[in-house]
Amino acid sequence: GLLEIAMPSVHRLAAAALVAAFSLSPALAHASDEDRLVLGAGALAYRSPFEGEGVSVFPIPILVARRGAFYVDGLEAGATWRLGADGNLGVSVDAFVAAGALPGENREQVTANAGVRASWAGSAGTVSIDYRRDITAEFEGGEATARYEITVPVGGVTLTPGVQLAWQDRATANHMYGVSAEQRREMIEDGVTTPLPVFEVREGGVNVGADLTILWPVTDRIVVIAQVSGACLGESARENPGLRDDFEVQTLIGFGYSF
After folding, report:
1. How many CA atoms lie within 13 A of 195 on its CB side?
2. In three state form, how does the secondary structure of the chain look?
3. Exposure pattern of 206-215 as b/e (b: 16+ CB <10 Å)?
4. Average pLDDT by consecutive 10-residue portion of the chain (259 residues)?
5. CA–CA gap between residue 160 and residue 216 (Å, rounded)
6. Contacts of 247 (CB under 8 A, 6+ apart)
7. Closest Cα partner for 133 from 96, 181, 92, 186?
């Protein structure tokens, strides 16, 4: 059916952890230079944009750790350099490696990216720009993201809304939203009811996304985490006849325990 409880494969756990890591980074791992360790668990509901694929729910682990300049955040690990502050504006640079996973349910592949991120944080919010590139030689593409977010305390709850533009070059857009003949053949062999048609994304594109993260501290150590995010796919990706929707949506709810 359109809603199913799925046992996560490595691919689905990677995708879920990536969503969690991306969403929790501004609120937990990069909030300050203080050492921290947050462990927890949650559930992710993901709506695939592809035909024949619906909403799946996956259990996910939550891991955020920082020691000095180094951090681990879900499936991203790296180091942060604080470049000082000018008035209320703080500048930092991250160098990182992160896992990557394909959207949808029937094209299972995990890759790795290396990248750099520059952030400018002030009372009006945080602006960041990052660039990451495949280091597994699977598709040899890159992606650049510009993001704005602001953290707003409301009573005892912290809200962090964000918006972003993610530009993908042709190789990355095709890797993410194209379907190869080999992938279609594997779907048929696996008995997929609606195997996706072969399609090549011929141009790069820009995905426009928005998200909202909610942190509710229940005690000094336990925090409830909720997050909803979505993205409108770029024009070149939307030409894929195997897409049912022009967007992706996911929702996360879970908890973290600070040690």
Report:
1. 15
2. CCEEECCCCHHHHHHHHHHHHHHHHHHHHCCCCCCEEEEEEEEEEEECCECCCCEEEEEEEEEEEEECCEEEECCEEEEEEEEEEECCEEEEEEEEEEEEECCCCCCCCEEEEEEEEEEEEECCEEEEEEEEEECCCCCCCEEEEEEEECCEEECCEEEEEEEEEEEECHHHHHHHHCECHHHHHHHHHCCCCCCCCCECCCCCEEEEEEEEEEEEECCCCEEEEEEEEEEECCHHHHCCCCECCCEEEEEEEEEEEEC
3. bbebebebbb
4. 44 49 49 79 87 84 89 88 76 91 76 93 93 93 95 92 95 94 91 91 94 92 92 93 91 91
5. 12
6. 49, 230, 231, 232, 233
7. 96
Tokens of 179: 């379907």
- Closest Cα to residue 179, out of 57, 54, 3, 53? 53
Strand partners, 121: 90, 126
* Confidence at residue 39, expressed as pLDDT on a 0 to 100 scale: 92
Q: What pLDDT, on the 0 to 100 scale, is given for residue 180?
A: 92
Quote the CA–CA distance of 104 and 240 in Å, as a whole number. 13
Predicted structure pTM score: 0.85
pLDDT at 193: 87
